[in-house]
Amino acid sequence: MIPDPHAKDAAPHDDGAAADTPAADKPDYPRRGIRSFVLRAGRMGSGQVKAMETLGPLYMLPYKAERLDFDQAFGRHAPTVLEIGFGMGDATAQIAAARPQDNFIGIEVHTPGVGALLQRISERGLTNLRLLQHDAVEVLRDMIAPGSLAGIHVYFPDPWHKKKHNKRRLIQAPFVHQLALHLAPGGYLHCATDWRPYAEQMLQVLGAEPLLANTAEGYAPRPDWRPLTKFENRGIKLGHGVWDLVFTRR
Ligand SMILES: C[S@@+](CC[C@H](N)C(=O)[O-])C[C@H]1O[C@@H](n2cnc3c(N)ncnc32)[C@H](O)[C@@H]1O
Fold it and tell me: Which atom of ligand 1 is closest in space to residue 6's alpha carbon?
């Protein structure tokens, strides 16, 4: 049975189901036997299917095990921000629209979300947003040059509530170290969650990473430019709190 990253009572699962990606040349990289997501057969609306066909070739970057040239991908030179797990992409599109001076690369594995965000890119006429449908851990490892990112957004990553599934959480020390290495000096890592134990884990792990400095005394105020996400709205309706963390690369 497929575990649900949000279910507080998720069923047991087989971690070995996901293939390990060989990274013999990058021995310090976290092992990828355990993934932070489970691929589900999501229902695609006809608009999303059409968007994948017609807009995909324009705005999607294929996953390749080679460095991505940002200037070529966007047709300009600008600070580039990576978002991991944009979900349906509502917040991503709003942020890209509000910050036209920056480039954004959104990564998501869930096909309906990719289709939905492609539609938004087209509706809003966004020229500064590209999408990549692949495991973000591998994208970072294989396609993004160290020290090249102006920012990284990780908004409401799957909380994996059950203790035995906590190991699937994205924000853990080895991956956070990789995130930090891929930031340019002064670049920022912005995480948000509505699950208190995960917020505490984030604060502990980010605070322990020597390459990162906290911009706040603990949790940070939500920056004006981060709109509420779809997932966040659902959590707020359920009475959850929300915790933002903003760290910068030393
Ligand atoms: C809880 S949802 C939050 C979505 C969105 N950020 C929001 O706040 O509405 C987390 C998303 O991260 C995606 N995800 C998890 N691990 C990922 C990975 N390694 N690479 C790409 N996407 C991932 C999942 O598919 C899911 O859509």
Answer: 1
Nearest by Cα to 94 from 74, 116, 119, 124: 124
Verify whether ligand 1 is closer than 6 Å to residue 201 (CB atom): no
What pLDDT is recorded for position 32?
55
Give the residue numbers marked as catalytic: 158
The predicted-structure confidence for 41-53, as pLDDT tens digits, reads as follows 777 888 888 888 9
Confidence of residue 225 (pLDDT cuts 50, 70, 90): confident
One-letter amino acid identity for 8? K
Cβ 155 under 6 angstroms from ligand 1: yes
The CB density around residue 134, as the number of other CB atoms within 10 Å, is: 16
Best CATH choice for the domain 44-249 from the list 3.40.50.150, 3.40.50.10190, 3.40.720.10, 2.160.10.10: 3.40.50.150
Closest-CA residue, ligand 1 atom 21, reads 108
Domain ranges of the chain: 44-249
